[in-house]
What does this fold into?
Amino acid sequence: MSTQLGTTERFTLYVRGNIDPTSIRVADLVKVLDAVDAAVGSIVMQDTPINPSEVFVALAAVQPGSVGLAFAPSLPTPMIAAWDRIIRTLNTDTTSSLPRRARDAIRRIVAFTKQYDCEAELRTEQTQALAVVTAQTVVVDAPPILGQTTLYGTLFRIGGRRQPTAWIATIGSGTIQCRVSYPLARELGAKLYGPVGVRGEAAWNATTLKIDAFKITEVLDYNPLPIDEAVAEMRQRYGEHFDKVDVDALMRQLRG
It folds into this structure.
C-alpha cells in the first residue's frame, strides 16, 4: 500500500553556522535524517496502535541556507504535532517527557552539532514553532520505573540481525518496540500480523507513566475470542447474571 505524501504539510531542520554543505559526510547526514525519523515516529507510535511501516518521514526538499532540510511526513497531522512537541520540550527543558527513542534521537542531533560546530534549528511551517539544538543542549532522562507486565495486541513486525525486535500495536498503549531473544523471535514469527500476548520486563517513563522499553521473556498462549463468543461463554458460566442482559445491545455498545 502506497502512502500519499503531502506537499505543503512539512516541517524543517536547518543546520546553521560556519559550515559548508560540501564538507558534511553523507554518513553523518544520514544519521541526522534517521534521528528525525526516529524522534517523530516514536512519539506517534507511543500514542497510536499503528503499523510502524506507515510512520515515516521523506526528505521533501533541500532548501537554501547552510543546510536546510524539509520533511514530508506520511501522517501529517500526528507527525507535525510530534515535531511541535519536540520543539516545545526543547524550549521548556522537559525532554524527559519524550519517549526514550526520541530522546536518543535528539542526542544524535546534538552530537552532529558538536562534530560540525553548528546549530540545528527545528521549525514547523504551519505554526512557526522554533527550537535550536546546539552542542550545549542537554537531553534529560526521567528515572525509569521498572517492573513486570503483560502486553496484548497485534504483531506488526519482527526481525533484526544484531538485536531481534518485535513491534506490537497494543490496545491503549500505542505501538511498543520490544527486545526479544532469537528463540522467542522465531516463535513470534509464526504469529506475524495476528494477535499476541507477551510477558516481560518493562521500563515506564516516570514523567508520563508510558512504557519506554520492553523486553519479552515469555510468549503467551493467547487466542482471543470474538465478542459474541466471549459473551456467550460468560453467559454459560454466569447465566443467572446475564438473564436480563440484551447481548445484541451490549455488543453494539462494545463495538462503539
